[in-house]
Amino acid sequence: MTDAQQFEAFMRNYQNMVFSTAMRLVGNLAEAEDISQEVFLRAFQHFAELRENPRAPGWLKTVAVNLSLNHLSRYRSRWSFFSDLFPANEAGETAEVEFAGPDNVEEDLTRAEQRRLIEQGLRRLPASQRVPLVLFHMEGLKYEEIAARLGISLGKVKTDVFRGREALRKKLGPVLRDDWRPEA
Amino acid sequence: MNPDFDPNLEAQIDRRLKELPELAAPRGLIERTMKAVALTVAARPSRSWSSWPLGWRLAYVMTALCALGALFLGWRAAATALAATTAPALSRWSGVAKCVWATLESLAAAASLVMHHFGYWLAVVGLLGAVAYAACIGFGTLFFRYAFASNEESHL
Fold it and tell me: Which domain holds residue A27?
């Protein structure tokens, strides 16, 4: 197997993880794809070390988060402007994103629908709420770390995460409950 | 503590978000990235030094040392040949340099004479002028950078 083939197999293993991380942070399909490509280009430069390294997924995730946050901070003036104007209609939100195939073909349709709605609700949050919320709940960062990464105060991070949760509850309501069923 | 904080909501959202499955990457991502990788490889045919096999590294070091040795010996030979042919031109240039040096010496002597005549206060006034000039330039640069930096770093 050549280097290129090995790298392609490596990408195939981790592309969903990298893309999900970028997509949930930047909330835009095309930008998330660009970031994912950049992550793998960097991975290729270090492929000799990453190839059989058990820390490769963590490395990829960290680079994906860093590049997404860099991207957001680079375009933050435009980003905050649009998110203030259209908080419920993020750029790229129209493009529907697919979930990775279920592990089990008997995946409960109700659960799948619930997840789809939650994912959609998350993407519809303004970036100023979505980014800290994703970093806190999905990437496992502490409030202090988020504040340092985003260059904002600890109080603002806590407020944004709190508002993000409240906004999700308002948007999704009963969808968040365990016993939720789609209306017929 | 925020009075509206609801630990149940936090736990519920935490659970829901953590159980979200990975999103499927766009179908063209691998193909697109592999093309970019091919371009990178074409633009940078060599691999990093740390990833070279040991034999290659040793061969490279030997070649580099030989090249350096050849360069050094070549330079010595070239310098000898050059000295023989350029000596007259060098002596002409050294005459010009001597002339410039003599002028600078005269100017320094004149400045020393002025200092001796007007004394301590001239030095103080000169020093203050230089400090004020440097302060103007320094603060101007600082304020300019600060103004533009704070403009760029608008809050999240």
Answer: 1-74
DSSP state of A180: -
Over residues B16-39, the mean pLDDT reads 90
Cβ B22–A100 below 8 Å, yes or no? yes
- Domain contains A89: no
Domain ranges of chain B: 9-118
Cβ distance of B23 and A128 shorter than 8 Å: no
**Closest Cα in chain A, distance from residue B54 (Å):** 15
- Report the C-alpha gap between A37 and A168 in whole angstroms: 30
**In this structure, is residue A7 part of a structural domain?**
yes
Tell if the CB–CB gap between B156 and A80 is shorter than 8 Å: yes
Overall number of domains in chain A: 2
* pLDDT band with cut points at 50, 70 and 90 for residue A85: very low
CB B12 within 8 A of CB A137: no
ipTM score here?
0.76
B33 phi and psi, to 5 degrees?
-65, -40
Q: Are residues A120 and A69 in the same domain?
A: no
